[in-house]
Amino acid sequence: MFALLAIVSTAVTGFMDPASSKYTSAALSHRHPRTHLVGNHGLGGFLQAMTLPLFWEIVDRSVGYNVCDVALTKLSPRNRENFHKLTAYDLGCGIGRFSVALARQNVKSIKAIDASEMMLSFAKMLTYPHKIKYLQENVVDAVIDKCDLVVASFLMHELPPSGHRLLLENALRKLKSGGQMLVVDADPDNTVLSRAVIDTMEPFFDEYQASFVDTCKELSRIHKCHYAYEKIDEGRCVVWILTKF
Ligand SMILES: C[S@@+](CC[C@H](N)C(=O)[O-])C[C@H]1O[C@@H](n2cnc3c(N)ncnc32)[C@H](O)[C@@H]1O
């Protein structure tokens, strides 16, 4: 009850005074106030975080799979057989959906990072707090320690190209040899999101579509990672699998 009251009061304060948080859109050069229309912060963030569990439940049932579980099957056999030894980061974790998938696989340690206090508040209420450490930071310059696994799901399309570069630089240089990064996101050959939705809610989607593949290939090369890309669901959802040599 106290947790819920704290969330509501943060939401209302953030809504009335968006500058009250250093994580608001205005303060984050790599975010945009129009992202998801209602935003990820303040009252808009509260509404979005509250409805996300239902949203994902509906999506999973309609497509017939959980995208996090499918993405994890793309890891190398060595990593899949040793989940219990892996140290992992979930970047742009939202309400902790991918972190929960990692916790279900018994991953050794999970640090989940998001800029939105609302998403993190709901994540803490909904997930396995003993397994997952939640941190409120901007993913493009968050401190990432040496690790075995980095996941970023449905984050890249919310960042401008400069954010893609900074984030990939930051994550890929911290992967141990054999470590992997999974990037799950909308298919750049999108056939699902309408023009109206993109124009209203996804300010960086066009740039993501146009440049992310090339950026990802380039930074994989620079950081000595094997680059692989698979369509999970044609037109809808893809996964990049970057493996450090
Ligand atoms: C579409 S949601 C995806 C959440 C989650 N990964 C999932 O798959 O359900 C994108 C998340 O990225 C976060 N985000 C966007 N830009 C960010 C940034 N620069 N730093 C940290 N988090 C960011 C948002 O707050 C939001 O929770």
TrEMBL record:
Q: Which UniProt keywords apply?
A: Signal, Transferase
The Methyltransferase domain sits at 90-179
Q: Where is the signal peptide?
A: 1-21
Residue spans crossing the bilayer: none
Gene3D superfamilies recorded: Vaccinia Virus protein VP39
Keyword Protein biosynthesis listed? The answer is no
Q: Which Pfam families match?
A: Methyltransf_25
One of the entry's Gene Ontology molecular-function terms is: transferase activity
Protein name, entry field: Methyltransferase domain-containing protein
Organism, scientific name:
Chrysophaeum taylorii
